[in-house]
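User: quick one - fold this with fe (ii) ion bound?
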Amino acid sequence: MALTAVPLSTQLLGWDAVELWVGNARAVAAFLSAGFGFHVTAYAGPETGCPDTASYVLEQGRIRFVVTAALVPDSPIAAHVREHGDGVRDVAFAVSDAAAAYERAVSHGAPGVEEPHEVKDAYGVLRLATIATYGETRHTFVDRSSYAGVYRPGFEGEKLPPEPVLGPPTGLDVIDHVVGNVEQGSLERWVDFYRSVLGFERLRHFDDSQISTEYSALMSTVVWDGSSIVLPLNEPAEGRRKSQIQEYLETYRGPGVQHIALRTENIVGAVSALRQRGVRFLEAPASYYEDARARLGHLDLPWDDVARLGILVDEEPDGWLLQVFTETLTDRPTLFLEIIQRGGAKGFGAGNFQALFQAFEREQARRGHL
Ligand code: FE2
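Assistant: Sure. Structure tokens for the protein plus fe (ii) ion:
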């Protein structure tokens, strides 16, 4: 078949959207907009011909989130929320040819969920196809090349809910990476899945000697499309106590998306604005900045702002990165966001893992899960 001659990565154009299935879409949309500075750009619900669901599209920079809730009890969305709590259902990719992407993925072993199909309205034709990945998570391939409407047919950009009181702009620009947690012992299988099904390459691997504290450990492999789509995958490793990944798997009741990293060109401005808007972050240990300045003081960074705002610093051979992690967004300790600025570094803050894990473990201990 000619399809296999075209590596899928050449059909992938980047992220399309991350869709969350939640209990109350209006409340989550308001939270993302008030806390993180997203703008609601489209809505679908009974008023637009979708009697069983309510969906809000939230955009900022090149980032698009969709939050969807069920309006009827027998909806698969309601069942998903009952099982997992609020969480990511679909990490959708923009592609140049949804049917070819789907055929390629399915012929390499991906479970097909929705065969290639078209949805139409006055604004054109949207071409879609969906495969399953870890847990109940999905990847939808989206070809927007013949569609000029807001998001999808069924959505409208009129009569949107009022914008909340505006805080300072947060300047979040693009999805940097989306991290999945998978069951212990399955990491290699999922790495192989992304390599064969999507034609991804292995970018990094961290084993439990690099990612561990006194109490807990994990292993992580990063796969990517060679360009913009970066998917780290974590599995729990044996430690003296329960790994944060194991806590996720138990409370989410299976594999799923752990965090979404949003990149900015100005993390000091972003975190300052987010804090003013009430977003709460994991706090670095008190000793962190003393250690960081001793280790990385040669970097030309606004150190006082970095320390005041609780931003973590790491250096790699190719440059530095600044990052910070929110507390979990959801009631269950599952999904959180990362804010990241890259000064050349392509990694994920390996030098911060120790500090970060200690912060996670303090939160786990407060929940009685360590
Ligand atoms: Fe990350």
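One thing worth noting: The two ends are 51 Å apart (CA to CA).
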